[in-house]
Design brief:
0% helix, globular, 19 strands, mainly beta, 52% strand, four-stranded antiparallel β-sheet
């Protein structure tokens, strides 16, 4: 597996995505594989789990597959397929309400979907590929990272950009939210991980 992405489910389970075109569910305790999720036609480069632990989200990259898929954790079966990206998908994230998901990819867009595969919004926030996404706890905002070297704080309902972070000298590879909900970490090809406040008011997270 040349590339691997990892997420965590409830009940001590982990989910991985690989360039063998599959997502797999594992027991986090003993690591035996519990189920192989097949259906993508290209490598799975992004996975996440909804906060309620009920759904796995996977995104694929390649000429044959630019789709996002939603799977049931309980049954390990396909729930829906989100079709809309015109190029590879490199990032997926789940909103806190567990009802909406985000995806970003090489077509430079961030897309907002319902779990049933319905496309709610398409936002063009960056000038290059979208490579990372993380949802914020208020269920209204998210962060996106890109090959354009920036991280953007945006509203998932209308795409309004509240703040642009230019903390890196190379493209942004990954994003994670710190437990306080007020700070995030960004990692980049400039060999640096940086911590920053996203700037939204703390009362949103009480």
């Amino acid at each position: 597996m040349r590339r691997l992405t990892v997420g965590f489910c409830a009940r001590a389970q982990a989910v991985t995505g690989s360039e063998d075109n599959t997502a797999r569910v594992w027991s986090a305790a003993a690591c035996p594989m519990q189920r192989e999720l097949t259906g993508h036609a290209d490598g799975v480069t992004s996975v996440c789990v909804t906060p309620d632990g009920k759904h796995i989200i996977s995104g694929a990259h390649g000429a044959q597959d630019t789709r996002v898929k939603v799977w049931s954790v309980a049954t390990k079966s396909l729930v829906s397929t989100c079709t809309g990206h015109t190029k590879s998908v490199f990032a997926v994230a789940a909103m806190p309400d567990g009802q909406r998901i985000l995806s970003g990819g090489n077509d430079k867009t961030v897309r907002v979907w319902l779990l049933n595969g319905t496309l709610e919004n398409t936002f063009e926030l960056h000038t290059r590929n979208v490579t990372a996404l993380v949802a914020l706890p208020d269920n209204q905002h998210a962060l996106s990272g890109s090959r354009d070297k920036t991280v953007k704080l945006f509203n998932v309902n209308d795409g309004a950009v509240l703040r642009t972070f230019k903390n890196h000298t190379h493209w942004v590879r990954c994003l994670a939210l710190l437990p306080d909900g007020l700070r995030f970490v960004s990692g980049s090809n400039d060999k640096v991980a940086r911590i920053a406040y996203h700037g939204l008011a703390p009362p949103l997270y009480k």
